[in-house]
Design brief:
The protein has 186 residues and is of the alpha+beta class. It is 38% helix and 28% strand. The longest helix is centred in the C-terminal third of the chain and has 22 residues.
């Protein structure tokens, strides 16, 4: 892997972890390459469906530490279409709801054009739901905490935000990090 850029070094293992087949990776890679900078690391690659349109087919979601990119591939002809390409800072009201009973997480965000995007990400095992929850917390929550004027773990944040941070820090503990380490990270 020597000589590969940061995106390639992180995208390929993330796609393998998600169980995305090599032919699918090969078809989607040129689209992702046009959207993501070479020095941006992939945090998550996942197959997903639109929660509001489950019969529309499968999407491939790429979450980096700077962007969210979602592609759609038609079922019959395997034509690729870029569905969403945005900087994380341009997303509003980002939420996710882990559901270990269904081994899935619903990720929702409002795009800059005002459209509410909802994606249903299925994982193989209920434990992976909490891993995905912690990963989403890692990518999205630090940005919200910094906007709160540096409050330690959200002490001066609204009650709903504090509760979310508490839930998120509990998820971090499942990854072997303490609440204190998470508070320092914020």
């Amino acid at each position: 892997m020597k000589g590969m850029d940061v995106f390639s070094r992180t995208f390929l293992p993330a796609a393998a972890e998600a169980g995305v087949a090599i032919p699918t990776v090969s078809r989607h890679m040129p689209v992702f390459r046009r959207c993501v900078a070479a020095d941006d690391a992939a945090a998550l690659v996942a197959r997903c469906n639109r929660a509001d349109r489950p019969t529309q087919g499968e999407y491939l979601l790429l979450l980096t530490y700077r962007r969210l990119v979602v592609t759609h591939e038609s079922r019959m002809l395997h034509r690729l279409r870029l569905h969403l390409n945005t900087e994380l800072g341009h997303l509003g009201n980002v939420t996710w709801n882990p559901d270990p009973r269904l081994s899935a997480v619903e990720l929702a965000a409002t795009a800059v054009d005002g459209v509410r995007e909802r994606f249903w990400i299925r994982v193989g095992h209920p434990k992976q739901v909490w891993h995905l929850d912690a990963l989403l917390s890692h990518v999205f929550r630090p940005r919200a905490a910094r906007a709160g004027a540096g409050a330690a773990a959200g002490d001066r944040a609204p009650a709903a935000t504090r509760d979310a941070l508490r839930r998120d820090t509990a998820a971090w503990e499942t990854l072997g990090r303490s609440r204190r380490a998470v508070a320092v990270a914020f």
